[in-house]
Every structure is written in C-alpha cells, then in structure tokens.
Design goal:
Blueprint: H1 2-17, H2 24-40, H3 43-53, H4 55-66, E1 70-71, H5 72-79, H6 83-95, E2 99-103, E3 111-115, H7 117-141, H8 143-165
Antiparallel strand pairs: 1-3, 2-3
C-alpha cells in the first residue's frame, strides 16, 4: 500500500507541476483523489505502513538484494540516505542482532555489513504482515476489482516513467 501512496502522491505532485498543460478537469480529479486518500489512509495507519518500509527495514531489504557484504558508504549512496542516518540505522540493527559488522580482509579501514539470520527472519515477518494485509484487501474488495486496480497502478507507473524520460524533472 505504500507503493499506492507513493504513486498517488507522485500523481498529485506531477499534476501541480504541469498544471499549464493538463486540463482543469484532471487537476480537479487529482485533488479529489488526494483528499480521499487522506480519509482512507489516516495518519496512524500510514505511519504503521511506512514503518514497515522505512530506515532499518529498507536497509535490510537492500542487504538481502545485494546478497553480499557491503560497506556503509555504499548503503548511503545507493539508498540516497545521509551518512549519519545510515550509521544510526546500522547501530539500531546491530543492537537487534539483525546485522553484524566485520573488518574487511582486503582493507582494514573498511567495515563490512552483513545481514544475520535474525535480520532475514525479521524481514520475512514484515513481508508476511504485508501479504496478510493485502490478502485482507483482496478478500474485502474482491479479486476482480483489485486486479483492475493493479492494472491502473501499472499504467500510472509507466506514465510516470515516460514523464521522467522526457526530461522534465521539475516535480
């Protein structure tokens, strides 16, 4: 659902940045969607969902994706996070035993970051919570409507990609 919020937020941002080009009707619809999303996603629910994908979990996902030992500089660069933020997140992850730090054999100045089995287990639990949440939505809304919604999200994603490929980075 975070993806949905991201796509809808980007839609609103784009609609405001290109309002000279877009029809007034499209702007009105975009504003209506934005207002409806505020009702659908109360702040406390949004915050809970964001926590699933924020800071420490984001770094754990990155470590899984890399499938190798990495240095904090790479995490900072690749995830576009400040060095102090990465450091604080790594400290929190280390306290929970989700990562370990070890010295590089090739360069003693470098500290390598490795995800632990506890870290992998934690991500599996987060993933399962999201799957359960989505399964609830599918059951409540219906598979046909969710499938249609998914196709709309894909079209929105492709439209955003096309928009940015045209070189307009103002939003």
């Amino acid at each position: 659902m975070l993806i949905l919020l991201t796509y809808l937020s980007l839609l609103i941002i784009i609609s405001h940045s290109v309002n000279k080009i877009m029809k007034e009707e499209n702007l009105n619809i975009a504003n209506q969607i934005f207002e409806e999303m505020k009702v659908i996603w109360p702040l406390d629910l949004s915050q809970r969902i964001n926590r699933l994908f924020s800071g420490t979990n984001y770094i754990l996902c990155y470590l899984i994706e890399q499938n190798k030992e990495v240095i904090s500089k790479d995490i900072s660069s690749d995830l576009n996070m400040s060095t102090p933020r990465v450091s604080a997140a790594l400290n929190a992850l280390e306290k929970k035993n989700y990562i370990i730090r070890k010295s590089s054999k090739d360069d003693a100045r470098k500290t390598l970051i490795v995800i632990t089995e506890d870290g992998k287990k934690h991500l599996e639990e987060v993933h399962q919570r999201m799957i359960n949440f989505l399964a609830y939505l599918i059951e409540d809304i219906g598979l046909e409507e969710i499938t249609h919604f998914q196709s709309i999200l894909l079209r929105m994603r492709n439209a955003l990609i096309n928009y940015h490929q045209k070189g307009d980075e103002k939003c």
